[in-house]
Amino acid sequence: MTACATEPAVEDENENEWTAGPACVITADGTYAARLALDGESWYPERWTLDGPEPYAVPLPAHQPEEPGTEVLPLTDGRVLIHRVAGGRHVFSLLYPTGPGTGELPLGAVECPDEGTRLRLLPPAPGGERAYAIAVGRGSTAVWLVAGGAFGPEHVAEVPGHCSGGVWLDGTGRLLALDRAQGGRTKTVVVDLERGGEMSPLLQIAEHSNDRLLLADADSGLLLIRSDAPSPGHDRLGWGVIGSTLPIRFPECLHATDCAVTPFAIQPGQVLTPESCAVALRIDGPAGTWLGLWRPAERQVHHLPAPEGWLAGTGLWTREGVLQLPYATGAVPCGVARVGAPRRTGEPDRTTDPAPPERPPARPVPLQQAPLQGRVIQTPGPHHSARPALEDEAVQADSGGETHNGSATDPSPTDSPAMTAS
Q1: What's phi and psi for 57, nearest 5 deg?
Q2: Burial, 224: exposed, middle or buried (Cβ in 10 Å; 0-12, 13-18, 19+)?
Q3: Please, are residues 296 and 274 in contact by the beta-carbon 8 Å criterion?
């Protein structure tokens, strides 16, 4: 979710290689996916249809192979946006199947005069009819509408500082959260794309902390955060609820010293109970890459092996609590594995709404509020606390609390949800 804006210009002509993109990109509604597939030594775009009885793939090759770092992004009408770099210009087109061949609709290009500028696509926007990109320059970051506009790519906002990340906060594609690096610190800000890029703070956990937003769910308001507030210089994974006055929590079960834990999907539809949202985690460690399933209301992570050929770091939850994981193998070039969310202790069935967990006493720490549904973000004054809350820790220091080391266990199917594939 992060990118280094000060990285030196690469020698290769394809400037998309400045950051590693996801292995597969899925529309917000889960109808389509797109990826860059490999045939021998040649790369080509591939569209996956996911909303039918069985998933299937449609290759969308152009007249010549694509460069390895070329970005693709599916739209909900079935077309695939492709971002190519040629001669310093960022060129955008829409690809679609036309019988035996591939149709291509040119959209235009974005030129970046500063050779140090890097441009990449943002995650699929809600609605699926538009696509956005950010161009990170020397002193500011530009937000571009690259598909869905009236006259080709349109410049919609300019944000001071170097920005990374990119998380949609609402269901309309209006509010975009970016992690802005400025003054030696990184804080998440909200950019209102319908008000000329008006900017408001979102995350300010502590004055000197680096706070980044990883994921957000518009239904429940659940936020997944990475911050070094509880242990300066060492990032921790935490969660909070947008608009809540309760403290941001950093569970010990998500803290690992020998593994990298990255959330990639939140269960939607849990409007009044963000603590009950199932969260999918990608875990990378000495034993390889595997899956973790977790709920904020619980103090444990359920570990299970990833399906063979999983397009790592990609997946989507249904409202009913089924995680869909795209995978590709030699035998199954287009498949989706399905994993049920683990039941909570004492939960009779998945349709029963769990009661909110009893919260331990904590000093209220307001999470910066995004202007959802007419609400305005308010910057905390001097009388507000800025300390995170650490779960499973009895002592909190003024600097953010004590940190206990922990590690993720090796993947094991024991007490893990069942996995099915199609």
Answers
A1: -110, 145
A2: buried
A3: yes
pLDDT at position 21 is: 60
Which amino acid, one-letter code, is at 331?
A
Mean pLDDT, the chain, rounded, equals 81
Q: What is the pTM of this model?
A: 0.79
pLDDT tens digits, 54-75: 999 999 999 899 999 899 999 9
Q: What's the N-to-C CA distance of the chain in angstroms?
A: 29
Q: Which long-range contacts (CB under 8 A, 24 or more apart) does 398-405 make?
A: 399/232, 400/206, 400/209, 400/229, 400/230, 400/231, 400/232, 401/230, 403/230, 403/231, 403/234, 403/236, 403/255, 404/252, 404/255, 405/255, 405/257
pLDDT for res 116: 81
Alpha carbons within 13 angstroms on the beta-carbon side of residue 391 total: 23
Q: Is residue 93 within 8 Å of 107, Cβ to Cβ?
A: yes
- Number of residues that this document lists for the chain: 422
Q: Is 166 helix (H, G, I), strand (E, B) or coil?
A: strand
Name the β-bridge partners of 111: 89
Structure-derived torsion over alpha carbons of residues 365, 370, 376, 378, reported in degrees to the nearest 10: 30
Tell me the C-alpha distance between 276 and 355, whole Å.
9
Better-scored residue on pLDDT, 390 or 10: 390
Residue 239: closest CA among 213, 210, 270, 260: 213
Q: How many whole angstroms separate alpha carbon 291 and alpha carbon 340?
A: 12
Give the DSSP letter of residue 172. S
| Torsion sign across C-alpha atoms 309, 315, 316, 322 | positive
